[in-house]
Predict the 3D structure of the following.
Amino acid sequence: MELFIDTAEIEEIKSLNVTGLIDGVTTNPSLIAKSGRNILETIEEICNEVSGPVSAEVTATDFDNMILEGRKLSSIAQNVAIKVPLTFDGLRACKVFSDDGIMVNVTLCFSSAQALLAAKAGASFISPFIGRLDDIGSNGLNLISEITEIYSIYDFDTKVLAASIRSVQDIIDSAKMGADVATIPPKFLKAMYNHPLTDKGLADFLADWKKTGQTIL
Ligand code: E4P
């Protein structure tokens, strides 16, 4: 499973990218707003740091302006994936970009019918928002499961990108459902490697080691 980081904070991305475990980055207008920075500069800096796909979202809602915005974002770097919303105009724009060989991440997906259309429009990624479905009492993981099943029957190339992650368990469950990618807020990547028994075990090993008086170097 690929792991993307869901943030527009460049320093946070840099600090996690040293692990070599970050396969890409997703941003959205809310994350750009939270960073307080210019979108074009931010996306350029992220693309210089991370070689995998970096999603940059259009803010226009009509086809013509989505195309103009998408082309501008795409001109920043080869690894920009244009993010378009799952609307009629967004699907039209997706088809145009994907026909031009540009990566597209179709976002704000809340049903398998929407995901089927995104795949037919040539999306590189479909982003089902599992947390936001759970928030309204629906079941986000069921959606991941339905989409992966449909995509595998028809052998679509579109990758299922589990988004709107609310816990480490969401990441594990998405992996079990066959999601190709999870985009995760930085705090959950840290939560993935932290475990109290790891900390305790390490402290015990080091205490015993100290008694030996040895050093390796
Ligand atoms: C990623 O592409 C999405 O924009 C993001 O995961 C949304 O997460 P949220 O529902 O926590 O805002």
In short: The first strand starts at residue 2 and ends at 6. The chain has one domain: 2-212. The first helix runs from residue 10 to 17. The chain has a mean pLDDT of 98.
